[in-house]
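Troubleshooting entry. The earlier prediction with 2P0 gave an output that would not parse, so I re-checked the input for stray whitespace and re-submitted. Clean input:
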Amino acid sequence: MTTAWAHTNIALVKYWGKRPSAGLNLPAVGSLSLTLDRFGTETSVEIADHDAFLLDGHDVENNEAQKVFLFLDRVRALAGRTEKARVTSTNHVPTAAGLASSASAFAALALAATRAYGLHLDDKDLSILARQGSGSAARSIFGGFVLWHRGTRDDGSDSCAEPLTTSLDARLVVVRTTSGKKETASTQGMEHTASTSPFFTAWVDTHPQDLRDAQAALAAADLPRLGEVMEHSTLKMHATTLAARPGFFYFQPTTIAVLQAVKTLRAQGTGAWATMDAGPHVKILCAPDDAAAIAAAAKAIPGVVGVDVCAPGSAARITA
Ligand code: 2P0
C-alpha cells in the first residue's frame, strides 16, 4: 500500500474555462495559486482484485468513483499494468464546509497511484497527470505559490504547473459562509459559462495581463499589487457567470457581507483582499501579522460559520 498527502490550493489568478480536448482538462487560461497548509487529502492505493473507492470511510459507487477508476486507467496505461486497485481517501477539511477540493484529491491520487503501480514520475509529469483528473490538481503537486501554464499543445504536454520563487509570505483567511453544498459544480459552471457568456471572450483576452501582473507582484514581494490583481481576476470570473445564459452566481448574502467587510478593513488601513471560487466562501489574502485581527473581524460577521487562518503549504508527498 502507498499513501500520499496533497494540500488544497486556492487560485489567486483563476482557472475558468477549458479549450476543446478529449478529457485532458486543457485550460483556456493559465492560473496562479497558493497551496494551503491546513486542508488536504490523504490517499492510499493498493493493488486489489477489483477497483474500489472509499472516501471518508464510505464506499463510493457513483460518478465520483467512475472518475477515480478512469484516472486509475490512465495510470495503468502509463505503467503498462492491468491489475485493479483499492483507493482509500480521507479529506482533511472542516466538516461539510463545501471546501472539499478535487485539487488535493487528484494530486494525492496521482502520486499514490503512480507509486503503487511502480512509476516514479518527475513533478512536471505528475502535474500533467493530476491535471487530467481535475484541472486545479495540477497545482497541488507543488507547495507555496504555483503557476499553471496554459500551454498550447493539443496533447497537453506543456500544460503543467511549476512552483514560483518569491520572498513574499502571506496568509489566506478562509471564511466559511454556509455549511450547505454548492449549487453549480465548477466543471459544469465553467463549461456553461464558456459556451454561453458573451463576457467569456473578454475573460480569455484580458487574462494574460493579470497573470503577468501577479508574477511581477510576487517577484517584487508586493502584497498590495498581488491582492489587487487577485480581486480583479476573481470579480471578472464571477462576472462571466452572471452574463451566462441562464446566468448564475455563487454568492450568498453572507458572501457579500464578508466582501463589504474586506473593503471596510482596507479603507481603515489594513491590507486585506478577497477571493471566491465556485462556492459562497471568501478567502482573504493578507500579511501574516494582520491575519489574527482579520480572522476576528470575519468571525463577528453574522452568518459566518467558521474561520481558518492558512499559511503556505508544502508540496504533495508520500507519507507511507
Ligand atoms: C481555480 N476553480 O482556479 C478555479 C476558480 C474554481 C474557481 O479550478 O473541471 O475542480 O475538474 O478541471 O479544477 C475548480 O475547477 O475543475 C477550479 P475541473 P476544477 O481554482
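This one parsed fine. The CA atoms of residues 41 and 91 lie 5 Å apart.
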